[in-house]
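Rotation project, supervised by the postdoc (A.L.). Task for the rotation student: set up a whole-complex structure prediction and record inputs and outputs verbatim in this book. Inputs entered:
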Amino acid sequence: MGKIERLLSKGARKSWRVFEPLWHFLSKIFGHRAVVVIFSVLIGLFVISLTSWAAYGRAVPVLDPHGLMAFKERDLIFLTVILSAIVVIPVFILLFIVAWRYRSSNTKAKYEPEYGGDIKLELLWWGIPFLIILILGIVTVIATHALDPFKPIDSDVPPVKIQVVSLEWKWLFIYPDDSIASVNVMNIPINTPIDLYITADSPMNTFWIPALAGQIYSMNGMTTQLHIESSDIGTYPGYSTNISGAGYSDMKFDVNVQSKRDYNKWLSKVHTSPLVLSDGYYDDNLSHPKTSEQMLFKLGDSLLFDKIVNKYMNNIDTVSAQNTEGI
Amino acid sequence: MSETVMEMDIIRQERQEVANRKTLGFWIYLMTDVVLFSSLFATFAVLRNAVASGPSGQDLFSMPFVLGETLVLLTSTFTIGMAVVLAKRGFKIAALFNLLLTFGLGVAFLVMELTEFTEFVHEGASWQTSAFLSSFFALVATHGLHVAFGLLWMLGLGIKMIRRWGKETDLGRLALLGTFWHFLDIIWIFIFTFVYMIGVLG
Amino acid sequence: MDWNSIWHFIFGRLTMQAFVHDPIMAGAGIMEIVALVVAIGLVTYLKKWRYLWKNWFTSLDPKKIGIMYFIVAAVMLLRGGIDALMIKAQQSTATADAFLSPDHFQQIFSAHGTIMIFFVAMAMIFAMFNLLVPPQIGSRDVAFPLLNSISFWLFAAGMVIVNAPLIVGEFSNAGWLAYPPLSELQYNPGTGVDYWIWALQIAGIGSLLSGINFFTTILKMRTKGMKMMKMPIFVWSVLGTTSLIMAVFPILTVTLALLALDRTLGTNFFTSYNGGNPMMYVNLIWAWGHPEVYILVLPAFGAFSEIVATFSRKKLFGYTSMVWALIAITFLSFTVWLHHFFTMGAGADVNTVFGIMTMIIAIPTGVKVFNWIFTMYRGRVRFTTPMLWFMGFVVTFAIGGSTGVMLSVPPANFQFHNSLFLVAHFHNMIIGGVLFGVFAAITYWWPKFTGFYLNEKIGRYAFIFWLSGFVLAFAPLYILGFMGAVRRLDHYDPSLGWQGLFIVSGVGVLLIGIGVALQIFQVIVSVLQRKKNPAPADAWDGRTLEWSMSSPPKEYNFAVLPEVTTRDAFWEQKLAMKRHAPEPVKYQDIRLPKPSFIGPLIGGLSMVFGMAVVWHVIWAILVSLVAIIVVLMVRLLRDHDEQVISAAKVEKMEAAL
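Outputs recorded:
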């Protein structure tokens, strides 16, 4: 161990003196190499645990969701982990047992250089993964249809319709039925299905609220959908996951899930906002490449979303240039 | 003495193997060209209705004209086939004459195609007008480019064979050129069907 | 005729402004120029230009071409790695503009991905093809030697183009795949995306030609008696890989061309206006892109099969099953491309089909792992450095594969797409699979092509740093993915608690950096100690024909082409030699292709063409294009010359062993 000692500083050398006897003891049992491996793994795990603990108390939205869709998606994730583990864990165990037992210094192990095949074993490891994939496949067929982003949520509560536009480099939320709009913040009532219609006036982006639901692309001239519902009051971050230029990292928005009363209070508050989102305001401010703070607007044009989509479908440069008949 | 004969045998065998490899390699290249054209066809299929506010296939394509182009190309495929067969049998003048015909027909085809393109552009239907037109021009012009390269090949090989006739390797090259030309004809049939005919029928 | 229009005619849209960069980019550009000047200066000082030109640049010997691929790949690995360090450093600060502006950051990760895939991984596998395929099938050469040289020089031209932005212009900020509409003129009018397009287009044509070359070589140039089912398994993996290359690189060619047309001639394939459809680009690019990742990993699988069998002193378990697994993976890889964009909204039916196909491909891949383990079973396993890389590979690749299965379920994918979970998954596969395989292959076959061993001890340390660095770098990314962290972010809100994990990940990348430094150190030390560490022809008690060549091999590989009756032909040869004495050898004249300057010429002209298109220099575009056509026409219509090594000379060279 002299080499290691020479490499360490004085302080480290002192702490090494504590570990040295343990190291020697384990080396005698497991062999020098194995001990290096074990210690490296332990140190790695320790470091990772340390930093995970640093993240303790922070949100892990994919594993701790607050929305209908996200709950079901988490269940799927757990299922896939378990199914994969059925194959991966035996692989690890086999790998290390075989590698250890048949190492060349172990002359006690049987040596059969011509042993090159066994139909039974082949059937086993073609067959078991096939069965696992079969199960997962059936689950996939059902789950993919159930969790289709375009599928509305089955509920007695009347949905709230929100139109979403990805811009450079912010998110615009239009509430056409309530005549308000907001930038980088979306308030929704609890236990209510929210029908989101999503388009882009920007390069391709992705609309993602990890705590509530999976993501979907936003694209010019096209409308995608997402249907979400949450049963937990709180504020959840949302992001874009597809790069769209220099301001991409600033495309974070907040989703506030509120009680019905607080949500209605918020609607009234927005109606007193001095800012009006007219077509002119949209063309002169929002459609320019710039990041933004959270903003609240009265909605000046209830057809704003359709006009934005129409820009690309009919080659019109601005929203203001379109009159209602043109759509 | 017998050693030299064996050497010649080996060299001949090696030359044959090299020729076989070249033929296989060229056929494989043609398969990759099929993938290339398939991608262009797929793009055309997806974008064929994206006419924006510009003209569609129905507005632009003239079936009699396209039929003319097709006949020109089909005839040239026949003449190059003749050239290959005649060359293998050693008929120098007849083979080169057929090759010249093929060249002329190929040039005629390209002239017709360029005329069609120029007319479209004058009518306001350029590759910039819509996605449909972009994919039309890309697909048909790529075919045209391949024809142009084939003509260059024909020119170079033809001149070489006029000056020095009968080399085994040149006959091999001519056969591959023939294969290339037939391949381009097949691609044209697909273009004729899926671009022009279906475009006109709407 | 004013100054301005003269300038524009000569230089296109190039201006002096294009040479001005922010300090970090300028520093990198200056380093690049200095490195170039030093290299050129060194060669001039040692008066080695003639030697380099005659023996390396114009050589049609696949062994030389393979080594050139390897050297370029190694240099590019350094550049890609430095990019990775910069990414991690910026992300560890959590603050915008800490030392990289967002635009610069985006150029760096785009360069990182592009360089690592096209100019490191692809180059490494072409190096493996060139060095290993002819000897393993008992041949002296590939089917089309000149095409081989042209392929390498096209690749080199692409490499120059992708590195030029450090000095003049800027690189793409649109990621390694440049999705439109971001990559269209509307959002990206500069030279960045054009550099990306033409570097890949030119290198891609080189790759396609190599695919055709090696496919034909394997089908047509196997030595006498080597039927398909007697080929080494590595050769089977090359057959699968080249089939994929031939089938999908034309798609890349078309896609890049269409994007280039949009950007130069105003077409509307993928624009947002006039009917363009960016979704079409996404489909096309992934129809190429998914098979591409199998192109990268199949040769690694093949290499591991050879390595495990040799170091277990045992034949490969389940050869037939392995071959069928390779064929299955090859076919299935065409059917899964949509799993890269489940979230684009294709609908439940389409998503389901592609999700299931993706899961199915996990089956043959898993089969291979079991077969490798059972090759070790009842063997005598020597844990040399290549075997250590193999152990590291199985562990990392199994985890990466299971995260792949997790990603293959569309609704689960909705929570993972483009998050750091995805980034961790594909680095798991590419580093754990492709890169570990490449490192194992390098260490394993190094003694064959150089005549001396690599230093084992330093190799082990490099492995330990790579493996631990890899775990530390990417395990936090999985956790970050669950925490909702998105990829390609240059800054984020520190209150989210992500920063600690980013820092740990950065430490991991530093450890990997130490691993790379150790590998460089290993090469230097091994070269200096090569007289003390000579390698015999049969350096590891190998099983396949390349081990019967001398170390390093003669130009003609085999003095007499071998005749083969079984799999693991060399192993059988050794057993046979133990039983009876070898027969006297009858030497014959050997004909090999003469060196040719066409390869470097086409490469140089292509580089001019690519740069000319990027900068819109019309006269240069026309001149280089015409020159390429003329050169090719003249050369292809000529019958090529050969050089002959007489039987007497062969006898002398063999005796000198």
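Student's summary: Chain A touches chain C through 103 residues (CB under 8 Å).
Supervisor addendum: Chain A has a mean pLDDT of 87.
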